[in-house]
Backbone:
């Protein structure tokens, strides 16, 4: 008896998962350290902190910074979706196509939303 | 320990001709300092209970036929000393994830069908095939590329260790995918393109989630987890190229 093979589309999701993992492992900790420790602990006058509203707004005025931010958010969503799907499988919960669509669908929705906001939010 | 000690083996038994569900049977087996678990099974068969059924051949961890679950872990019974299992009791079950034929004997058919399906054989270049008596030379470095994978003895311990194979039996599995990598990595082989369909399939490398237990239980030091996950990168690369350049493959 010979085995018939159907090509898997997993590489697409695996690559997004891997890229998201990279963001989660490298970019996210830096963001947490900066926003959670460095910024609040840096001595500053009341209205001129490192994360001062005007300062952050200027940063995100640049389309590059906006796109990078949206990209990071999207990749993290794909990473999470893939992990949740595989966790369910490992725990013996086989949601079939429905679970697959809802996991990756949510990631796609988050990506669209993040991408849309980059374009639609008015520049300061 | 001293010679003359005994150890209790609890064996999960099943007989296809009996209506009974699998049952546990205990045997008290004398052993010496150099007795293996396989020898204990042979002692049972020769002296205590001739109906106990198990596979074995080489008694030296090379034929791959004596695998079973020992205290829940896949092992070669000829590769374990009883003194290391003392004081016992030792729980013996057939290899996990396989249909049982009788007692500790499992049905290997699934794996035997997967082996040819992944192209686990050398496909020589046309000129080498035309001159079968001419040696195909290989440098030590070229041999080192595949040598580790070539140590596989088809014992199937890795299939019992793999939770993904347990969940989804059509997964080609650790040894078959390691043997695919073994032939792909051989400088004398030209069969790589024919193996891609199996590699890229839903039941190919993508069913692996890098648990890595296959590599831990392998008695031969084969590293199936590495073979599979290196092939994931290759499979993903081909996927992207095939997407960007339709008609590239075939
Ligand atoms: S890879 Fe190792 S554990 Fe798996 S069948 Fe081969 S020798 Fe046995
Ligand atoms: S009897 Fe051959 S591997 Fe154990």
Residues:
């Amino acid at each position: 008896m010979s085995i018939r093979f159907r090509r898997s589309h997993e590489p697409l999701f695996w690559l997004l998962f891997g890229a998201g993992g990279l963001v989660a492992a490298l970019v996210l900790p830096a963001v947490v350290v900066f926003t959670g420790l460095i910024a609040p602990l840096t001595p500053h006058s009341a209205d001129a902190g490192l994360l001062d509203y005007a300062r952050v707004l200027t940063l995100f005025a640049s389309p590059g910074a906006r796109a990078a931010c949206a990209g990071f958010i999207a990749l993290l969503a794909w990473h999470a979706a893939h992990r949740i799907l595989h966790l369910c499988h490992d725990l013996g919960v086989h949601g079939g196509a429905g679970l697959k669509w809802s996991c990756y669908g949510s990631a796609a929705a988050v990506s669209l939303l993040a991408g849309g906001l980059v374009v639609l939010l008015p520049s300061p | 320990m001293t010679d003359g000690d005994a150890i209790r083996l609890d064996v999960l038994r099943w007989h296809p001709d009996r209506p009974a569900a699998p049952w546990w049977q205990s045997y008290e087996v004398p052993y010496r300092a150099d007795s293996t678990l396989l020898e204990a099974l042979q002692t049972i068969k020769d002296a205590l209970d001739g109906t106990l059924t198990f596979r074995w051949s080489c008694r030296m961890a090379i034929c791959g036929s004596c695998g079973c679950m020992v205290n829940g872990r896949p092992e070669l019974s000829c590769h374990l000393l009883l003194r290391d299992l003392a004081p016992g009791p030792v729980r013996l079950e057939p290899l996990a994830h396989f249909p049982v034929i009788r007692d500790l004997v499992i049905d290997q058919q699934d794996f035997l069908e997967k082996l040819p399906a992944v192209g686990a054989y050398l496909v020589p270049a046309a000129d080498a095939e035309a001159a079968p008596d001419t040696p195909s030379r290989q440098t030590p470095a070229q041999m080192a590329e595949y040598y580790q994978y070539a140590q596989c003895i088809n014992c199937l311990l890795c299939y019992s260790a793999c939770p993904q194979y347990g969940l989804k039996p059509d997964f080609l599995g650790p040894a078959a995918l390691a043997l695919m990598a073994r032939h792909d990595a051989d400088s004398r082989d030209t069969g790589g393109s024919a193996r891609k369909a199996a590699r890229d399939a839903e039941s190919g490398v993508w069913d692996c989630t890098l648990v890595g237990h296959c590599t831990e239980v392998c008695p031969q030091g084969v590293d199936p987890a590495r073979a599979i996950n290196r092939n994931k990168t290759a499979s993903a690369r081909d996927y992207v190229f095939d997407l960007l350049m339709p008609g590239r493959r075939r």
